[in-house]
């Protein structure tokens, strides 16, 4: 069995092919991938990673079971609130905000929630 097959069994992923509207909530024990946007007022809570192939403008809580190795990534990362395990961040105030021009990701590094531009080199060596 390949490493990625074992990883897939231990960390299942929920794929959602639609935009989440205000008031909609997703809770899942594994990873969550959204093929669409997450609008303000929508919430995602995942035990693993959260990946949004669109705008993330709602609330995202990755590693909700305490997994501080989880991450959040989106084509446009502008959440009302972002959480990884017990770490919490939010978008800058409207007058200070600049819309991201590139996909971004959030992770916990050295005890802080960090948001950075996605770089293709982050993918590492895929087997």
UniProtKB/TrEMBL annotation:
Keywords: Cell cycle, Cell division, Septation. This is Septum site-determining protein MinC. Signal peptide: none annotated. Pfam families: MinC_C (PF03775). InterPro entries: CAP/MinC_C, MinC, MinC_C_sf, Septum_form_inhib_MinC_C. It comes from the Bacteria. Interacts with MinD and FtsZ. Residues 16-116 form the Septum formation inhibitor MinC C-terminal domain.
């Amino acid at each position: 069995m390949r490493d990625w097959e074992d990883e897939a069994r231990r960390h299942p992923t929920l794929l959602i092919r639609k935009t989440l509207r205000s008031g909609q909530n997703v809770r899942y024990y594994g990873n969550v991938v959204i093929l669409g946007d997450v609008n303000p007022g929508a919430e995602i809570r995942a035990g693993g990673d959260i990946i949004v192939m669109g705008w993330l403008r709602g609330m995202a809580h990755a590693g909700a079971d305490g997994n501080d190795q989880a991450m959040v990534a989106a084509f446009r990362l502008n959440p009302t609130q972002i959480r990884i395990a017990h770490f919490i961040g939010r978008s800058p105030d409207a007058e200070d905000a600049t819309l991201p021009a590139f996909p971004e990701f959030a992770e916990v590094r050295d005890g802080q929630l960090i948001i950075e531009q996605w770089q293709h080199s982050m993918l590492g060596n895929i087997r």
